């Protein structure tokens, strides 16, 4: 570290939509960043896949390199920004950077959620910072508040809308009545969804973020593989309409809960009441709702993706890491002392909204209610819609384990008087 | 500091609604706090005004003292929590604690907003932390996000609902149509407003918070005296109804803006559109809406007051200060390098909503419009309500300086055809 002239040198790995904004801000805001960090932040180099690719920002040619490993192991690099994503080569590069004495800022949710432990261990060993605010909910400050602001409190639940693509699709289905396929197509046309939307639509992206949120909120270690995951491809226009009748909306939620000393971490679509603060999160925005024992209910809202917003989070981490390097200290590392078990989905406690096409016979309601009772599930409300061949029951249960609830649905599917179970969706956002 | 047995000793000044919750959490959560801080946090003493007062928490008798100065200058005190409020003796105690080598956590918005500079200087001199997250918006993490998470970005505007009492009153006026006096009375009955509501209702509390927010957001120094302040006592049921017709709500806002390299910091009631995220902040909740160049629009929402929520913020600061003490480092101190001028209110740029009782004469609209034009104010919309003797014009202006707008209103008041200017309110929350 070149402390003499108060400059720190920054290597940026990746120059796509986030990396190019990081480079732009490092240049345009350099005076402010220097005043805040206590040293100039100089661009040491930018690792790219192809030297001649078109970029959103102009990078002096001598700073570009295709040899990322060479860049992060140079003697004159103090800080490394990793915005290439994916598992490898990102993991190898971050480990090499930390071993080389650099502090690292990453936006890599997939890597952090799959193998954060290896990275945190390396950061501890080198006594360097590994910050990753940009990995969850883009520009929204949520990881630092969980790690520092709420560290004197006991967080009990985190409900997050942490994937902008799926929120855009569900919001579109709500406002226009469109089905999933049509809403996805519009999201793709507008650039909110990728050509292959699997990672977003199937909940992989949200599950990685849920793992990171649960780990920080509960001081434990949760990996992406621990997170139960269901996407939104099965959400129908009828589900959305049914939610509306209940004065609710369907959202894809990342849910992290403490229950009986264990953690439940899951991603699935759920109905939440219109009055819940998360219900008003529209379009591609993200929000994270946190419940804690002393603070009560908090919400953090903002853009969850995009080059400039994500770069804002990266630079916040970068300035903080720079301050720490200059003062010879480091921020809080991983806090996983609680080492909690992860609950299997079947033991998670939740509520179901079930739509059932039934034969219009006397006693049908009693028979259906008996099926719920047989599995120990009590019913909160039941509503009958239509008559004759169009008879439809809508049942909302009280809280029960997911195993009890799914066994009930299985049971219903096998009953003679049930023509079809038309909709099954969990209900969240209400107090126990 | 007693680093040998990994314990840090905490003095708490004040044992009212916040102090008692701090003491309770220090006891009840001690194992978790120790794991997170890296050392046990032991209660060294609690300074109170009267030893025999009734308290919400039981404090061992030998830990109670009425001599706060003696407590903060003891050798075995590492961390001091100041939750007594007011200017003196709080200032003297904090200065003594810092000089004695303790790090300090305060919830004292009035003191920070009036004389933060003296305190920050003392903290720098002693190389200790002075944290005060609880001073603004209670449990909501907003100061640390501004100081750290957004430090790589350029914040351009902060709009805050930072006083729960006034938000409760205005929300009540909206939902019930009640007038100010009636809503205040209900707030007092429910414990949301004090018997003497001046500090809340006249905007003093919000102005102190605006000064703190502006200082952190813009890396400059703004004191409570720099903040233009108008309360909500003049807000009428008619104003609220008029806002509703515009699909807006009236909120008391703390507004901090960068404009032409200077800061505008002000507190006043304003109409904001229903679609703005701040519009849905109900009852006594607080929220801070932040606009920045790279991140875009963020919002932080939660309970702005109350013993336990405020204690959550205090303990987050306390654990962070403890970690820093243990590692021999400190967090970021005051950042006021930008040293910006504060704009006088007259130079602030805003929009006005003006209700005018006019005589029903031909040409009245043209005459009124000419008055606006004479002061260089252009009109966005004008609506005529009623007829004959009840004729009323509602004018919403485009953006202009507050001086131009208030001169226009003065002019209107002196016009023959104007019976009365019935309502003047600023309009915020829309883009320029």
UniProtKB/TrEMBL annotation, chains A, B:
Keyword Protein transport annotated: no
Chain ranges passing through the membrane: none
InterPro entries xrefs: ACT-like_dom_sf (IPR045865), ACT_dom (IPR002912), Asp/hSer_DH_NAD-bd (IPR005106), HDH (IPR016204), HDH_cat (IPR001342), HDH_CS (IPR019811), NAD(P)-bd_dom_sf (IPR036291)
Keyword NADP in record: yes
Domain ACT: 353-426
Pathway of action: Amino-acid biosynthesis; L-methionine biosynthesis via de novo pathway; L-homoserine from L-aspartate: step 3/3; Amino-acid biosynthesis; L-threonine biosynthesis; L-threonine from L-aspartate: step 3/5
The protein's Enzyme Commission number: 1.1.1.3
Family: Belongs to the homoserine dehydrogenase family.
Protein's UniProt name: Homoserine dehydrogenase
Organism listed in the record: Nocardioides dubius
């Amino acid at each position: 570290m070149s402390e003499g002239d108060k400059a720190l040198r920054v290597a940026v790995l990746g120059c796509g939509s986030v990396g190019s904004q990081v480079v732009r801000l490092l240049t345009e805001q350099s005076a402010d960043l220097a005043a805040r960090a206590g040293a100039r932040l100089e661009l040491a180099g930018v690792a790219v896949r192809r030297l001649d690719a078109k970029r959103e920002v102009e990078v002096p040619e001598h700073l570009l390199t295709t040899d990322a490993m060479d860049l992060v192991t140079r003697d004159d690099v103090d800080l490394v920004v990793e915005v290439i994503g994916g598992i490898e080569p990102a993991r190898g590069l971050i480990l090499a950077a930390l071993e080389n004495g650099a502090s690292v800022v990453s936006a890599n949710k997939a890597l952090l959620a799959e193998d954060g432990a290896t990275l945190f261990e390396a950061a501890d060993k080198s006594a360097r910072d590994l910050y990753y605010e940009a990995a969850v909910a883009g520009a929204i400050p949520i990881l630092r508040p969980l790690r520092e602001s709420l560290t004197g409190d006991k967080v009990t639940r985190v409900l997050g809308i942490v994937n902008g693509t799926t929120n855009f699709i569900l919001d579109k289905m709500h406002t226009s009545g469109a089905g999933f396929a049509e809403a996805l197509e519009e999201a793709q046309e507008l650039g909110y969804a990728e050509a292959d939307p699997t990672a977003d639509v199937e909940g992989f992206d949200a599950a990685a973020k849920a793992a990171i949120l649960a780990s920080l909120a509960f001081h434990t270690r949760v990996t992406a593989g621990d997170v139960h995951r269901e996407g939104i491809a099965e959400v129908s226009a009828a589900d959305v309409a049914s939610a509306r009748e209940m004065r609710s909306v369907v959202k894809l939620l990342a849910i992290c809960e403490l229950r009986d000393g264990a953690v439940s971490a899951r991603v699935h679509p759920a109905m939440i009441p219109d009055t819940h603060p998360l219900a008003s999160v529209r379009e591609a925005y993200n929000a994270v709702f946190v419940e804690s024992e002393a603070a009560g209910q908090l919400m953090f809202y903002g853009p969850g993706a995009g080059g400039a917003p994500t770069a804002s989070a990266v630079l916040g981490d970068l300035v903080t890491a720079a301050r720490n390097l200059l003062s010879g200290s480091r921020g809080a590392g991983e806090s996983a002392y609680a080492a909690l078990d992860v609950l299997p989905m079947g033991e998670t406690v939740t509520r179901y909204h079930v739509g059932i096409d039934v034969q219009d016979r006397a006693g049908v309601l009693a028979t259906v209610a008996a099926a719920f009772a047989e599995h120990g599930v009590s019913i909160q409300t039941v509503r009958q819609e239509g008559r004759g061949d169009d008879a439809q029951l809508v049942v909302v249960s009280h809280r029960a384990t997911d195993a009890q609830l799914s066994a009930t649905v299985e049971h219903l599917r096998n009953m003679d008087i049930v023509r079809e179970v038309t909709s099954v969706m969990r209900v969240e956002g209400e107090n126990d």
